[in-house]
Amino acid sequence: MSAPLDPARPLTEIGGNLARRRRVDRFMRGSSTAAALVAVAVLGIMIATVVVHGASQISIGFLTKDPAVGLGALGGGIANAIVGTALIVAVATAIAAPIGVLIAIYLTEFSTQRFARPIRLALDLLNGMPSIVIGVFVYALLVEGGGQTGFAGSFALAMIMIPLIARASGEMMRLVPRELRDASHALGISRWRTIVGIVLPGALGGIVTGTVLAFARAAGETAPLLFTTSIFSGATTWNIFGQPIPNIPVTILTDSESGFPSDHARAWGAALVLVVFILVGNLSGRAMLARQRRRYQAR
Amino acid sequence: MSTQSAAARLPSNRHVADRLGDRVLFGMTVAACLAVVVLLVLIVVHVVNGSTDAMSRFGIGFLWHTIWNPASSPGVVNANVFGAGVWVYGTLVTSAIGLVIAFPLGVAIGIFLALIAPGRASAVIGPLVELLAAIPSVIIGLWGIIVLAPFMRDVIEPALHNVLGFIPLFGPPSTTGLGIMTAGFVLALMALPIIASLSRDIFLSVPSELKDGALALGATRWEMIRGVVLDSTRSGLMAAGILGASRALGEAIAVAQVMGSGTSLSGGVFGNSFFNTGDTLASKLALSFPGTNHLFTASLFYLAVILLIIELAVNLAAQLIVYRFERRRGFVH
Description:
heterodimer; A: mainly alpha; 11 helices; about 0% strand; flat; B: mainly alpha
C-alpha cells in the first residue's frame, strides 16, 4: 500500500508521504462525488429538456382531444393514447399482479431452498430478457395468427411486470414477523387462512407499491408494444381484444420520426405527460415502500 | 424459509374446507411459478421456430456476414441475402463503449453513496440516480436526438478526433451526431443507474469491522476503500457490470433513435469509425421487424435468437457470480 513506516517518526507529523496520501485521498473522494453529481445533472438536464419542449403543448384540449386527422395536421391532443396506455397497462396489471403475488407466496411460505433457487433464477432470467425479444415472442405467439390487438400488448407488458411484482411482494412478505405466523398456527388456524388473513394484509403495502412501480415501468415501455399494438387510428377505442390500441410510447416514437413540426410538438407533449406520470408513480411508490419498511424495522 | 412450526404439525380436527383451501392455494402458487418457467421455454421455442428457415439457409456464418439485403426483385446482386455481422458488431461495440463509461462512473457513484456521502446526502442522491433508470427509453432516445447528438457532433467527436485521430476508430466527426459513439453514450446512461445502485448495495454489505479496522490502522479513507472494500467486492462488482451490460445489449428503442441506421462497416471491424452510423441486433429488430417477405422475417427472428442467447448467457453468468459471492459472504447457507 505505501512505504514502510519509519518508527522513529512521530505519527502525527504531516510530511512527504502522509501529505501525498492525503492528496490522493482527497482527489479520489472528490472524483467520486463528481461522478454522482454528473449523474444527477444528466437526470436534471433530461427532465428539463422534456419540460421545456413539452410544457407549451400541454392544455386541457391536448389531454382530452384525439389527434387531428391528416398528415402533419395541427391541433388535437393525445386523449386516444392516454386512454389506450391506461387500458393496456391496467389489463397487464390484472394479469401480472395475481401471478406475481402467487409466486411470492410460494417462495416465502411454501418452497424449500431446493425449489426456490430455480424459480428465482427463472424470474431473474425473465427480468433480464430484452423487451424487444418479448415483443418478438408475443408477435409469434399472438399477433401472427390473430393480428395486432391491445391485449397482445398487455400480455407482453405483463411478462415484464411479473418479476418486478413478485420480487417486491416477496421482500415485504418476508418482513412480516414470523411470530404472527406461529401464533396463527398455534391457534390451529390452517395455512391458507394464515396466509390470506395474516401474511397478505401485513404485506399489502409492499404488494401495492410493487405493483405501482411495475405499472410505472410498464407504462413507458415501447419495445413490447411495437409489434403488438402499434398500427392504430387516431380515435379513442376501448376494444382491447379486437384491435390495436393507441398508446403514448408508440405515439412518441412515431411522432418523433415524422417530418412534420406539429408531430414533433405532439411527441414532446406526450413525453411530458408520460414523464410526469412515471415520476409521480415512481416517487410515490418509493415513498410508500420506505415507510412500509421503516414500520417493520421499528418493531 | 419454512414457517411450519411444531404446533402446525400437531394433529387437529381441521375442517375439510381448511385442508382443501391449503391444497388449492398451494396448487395456485405452484401453477404461477410453473407459468414463468413455461413462458421462458415458450420464448425460446417460438423465437427459434420463427428463425429455422434463415438458420438452414445462412447457417452459423449469419453471425459474421455483413450483407443484409431485403430487396427481392430479380436481377439485384445478393437479393434476399442476410447476414447479421454489422448488427453483431454494433451490439458489441456500443455496449462496450457504454460499459467503459458507465462502469467506472457507476462504481464511483456507489463509493460515494455507500462510503463517502453523509447519510442524508446519500438518501437524496441515491434515489435520484435510480430515477434515471425509470425514464422510458423512448424519451431518452428523443433527448438523445435533440440534445446529446448535437453535443456529440460539436464537442465530444471533434475533441476525440483531435486527440486520438491517428486511430481509425476516431475518424472525422459526423454531420448529424447520430452514430455508434452516441449510442454508446446513451447506453452508458441506461447502464449507469444499475451499476451504481448495485455497487452501492455491495459496498454497504462490507462488514464495518473491516472498514473500521483499516481506518484504525491509519489508512486514509481512500486507502481503506481500495484495500478493503474494493478488494473484497471484486466479484460482486463484476456481476454489477455484467448486469449493466445486459441492459445495454438488449436496449432497442433508444439505440434505434440515435444510431442513425447505418448498414455497412466501412473500413472493416477495426477501421470503422465510432462516429459512423450503425445498428444493433435489438435496434435492427425494432426498425425492421416483422419484415416484408418470409426469409426476411426468418432472418429477423434469427437476430432475436442471437440476442436471446447473448442475454441468457450474460444473465446466467451474473447470477452465478452473485451466488458464489453471497455464499462466500455467508448470505446463502
